[in-house]
């Protein structure tokens, strides 16, 4: 880490973990590009139909998901 | 709370980012969609336990993440062709260069330990606060911060830095080649 000091300048000063702000922002950009590609695809029909179907059943899905009905996610 | 129209709409609105999270975690589009489907079934079956006014996306992400973790333990990541499957999910094919860069990034991301990968995605792509990410992963805020930092450093080392790891062997190789050539 010490030898990096010699080449440090405004744009290349390493932040946490020895990363330059430039590299940090490049990683952030690529990560979001990858993620947003999927987000932009919106809601596939499959899921819209699933919710509609479950709704018609009164919001209580059949036990088609493995053991879903007996779990208590978020309950205490 | 009961499943109201607005709650149902909010759940649907969260589907695109749930898919993005699932694909980022699993590296496999088909498996990701199964994971999202299971998450929705689980969420609707347990909708009574959702606290009105609390963070719905965080609640859904928690369910998905836990499903993925239990599934992961069973399968031990048998799927190796992550990039190929992931590319299939893209509507528009990126240009050749961008695609290559994209695959490199995807491959590097897959090399991260799972804890670090999920922390980085939640904070860096999903846009959750450190606090929300900590609650989704069931750990301390400081733990999330350090995981994100380690994830970034590792990605940087894999992608952008010709760091010390390469330097030593390269020098040796060069010395060997140079020596034998003379």
UniProtKB/TrEMBL annotation, chain B:
GO terms for molecular function: DNA binding; sigma factor activity. The keyword Magnesium does not apply. GO terms for biological process: DNA-templated transcription initiation. Residues 15-77 form the RNA polymerase sigma-70 region domain. CDD domains: Sigma70_r4. Residues 103-155 form the RNA polymerase sigma factor 70 region 4 type domain. Keywords: DNA-binding, Sigma factor, Transcription, Transcription regulation. Belongs to the sigma-70 factor family. ECF subfamily. This is RNA polymerase sigma factor. It comes from Bradyrhizobium forestalis.
